[in-house]
Each structure stands twice: as structure tokens, then as C-alpha cells.
Amino acid sequence: MMISRSSPDGLHVTPGYHHVTVVSAGRTAYLAGQCPLDGTGDLVGPGDFGAQVEQVAANTVVALGSVGAGPEHVVRTVIYVVSADRAVLAEVWRRFRASPLAPAFTTASTLLGVVQLGYPGQLIELDVTAALPDQPAPPPA
Q1: Is residue 55 part of a domain?
Q2: Range 83-88 contact pairs with CB under 8 angstroms and sequence separation of 24 or more
Q3: Residue 139 falls within a domain, yes or no?
Q4: Membrane spanning segments where (predicted)?
């Protein structure tokens, strides 16, 4: 599997992501929207964007790992933030780019301010698509 990322001439300079991501044919994982819930289903960090980014990033790393992938295999992200404030949106982007999930945000990415998400008090949700690494060949019989 090969992943290439580019930003064609004539498009605006980005704050770290690329405009285009191309993946050679292979297996793909589509993660459900990752929410700021802990392992027991409780919301982490009500009202705290930073705490929710940390939980979402941690959950996403676990979900990717469950299919043999890491942040470097992510080919598309969509970040949903309950805010219309550009400073809040920029801070959420900065925090994701500083998290263990940071390599995921060098690829095609969209950041959206929204009115509401699914859980009461939820401020962040992350939608991720990953190109899975090739499966190793089975051992010789």
C-alpha cells in the first residue's frame, strides 16, 4: 500500500494538512465518529475542549490499533467542534496536531464548527478513514 499526499499549485497554503491524498488499492477502515467518552461510556471533560480532544485522540489511536493501523495510515479526517468561534476551532486543530494522533492531520482534513453533537456536553467528534497496511503473507506451510 502506498499513500501519497500533495497540495497542488494554485491552491491555498494549509496549516499542516494536504489538499489531496491518494491511496493505492487495498483495505480501508472507516471509523465511527470518535467521541470524548471513556471506556465506561462517561463523557470526559464537560465544557473542556482540551480534555475532549485528548480523549478523542486516545480513543482514535485505540480504534486504529484494533485494525493494525496507526495515525500515519489515516487518509482523511473530519473534525466537528461545537463552536462558531474561529479561535476555538484553531485551538482544537492545534491540540490535535500536538497529540499522539498528530500524523493523521497531515492528510486531507476538514474542520467544521457545528451547533450540536450527539451526547449532552459533547464538544468534539472526529471522523477518520484509514488505509490499512498490507497484511503480512501467511507463513509457508
Answers
A1: yes
A2: 83/49, 83/113, 83/123, 84/113, 85/113, 88/49, 88/113
A3: no
A4: none
